[in-house]
Design a protein that fits this description.
The chain is α/β, with parallel strands linked by helices. It is built from four helices and five strands; from the N terminus they run βαβββαβαα.
Length: 120
């Protein structure tokens, strides 16, 4: 899968749908929620991803830094590990801010692999 085949989630309804009807996997630096889209649900791309960071992480500077780190890690891993026809929501945790980028990559890779196994 190419990076151009990935769309970013922007509507709140898409985030809520992933939280309610999908699977989730928790790691120290992030939580990944994923859901398989219905056949009748239109989408331009096979994979859609969204990023969020809650106020419990800190101020806007910290939250934006966490989201930038999540986007950078997802850019590397999602094209090779994500399943087509799925939505993924990446939620930053404290480990995404205080930990190293390699830790974030390791956590995201493990979570994406486990979610792919659970969804098959």
């Amino acid at each position: 899968m190419l990076l151009s085949d990935i769309t970013v989630l922007k509507r709140r309804a898409d985030f809520v749908a992933a939280a309610k009807s999908g699977l989730k996997f928790v790691k120290p630096s992030l939580v990944i929620q994923s859901r398989k889209r219905a056949e009748d649900e239109p989408s331009v791309s096979p994979v859609r991803i969204g990023f969020t960071a809650t106020k419990t992480l800190g101020n806007a500077v910290i939250r934006n830094r966490v989201k930038r780190r999540l986007r950078a890690a997802a850019k590397k891993l999602v094209p090779e590990l994500a399943l087509g026809g799925c939505d993924y929501v990446f939620i930053g945790r404290t480990g995404a801010h205080v930990g190293t980028f390699d830790d974030l990559i390791r956590d995201m890779k493990h979570a994406l692999k486990r979610l792919a196994d659970m969804m098959k």
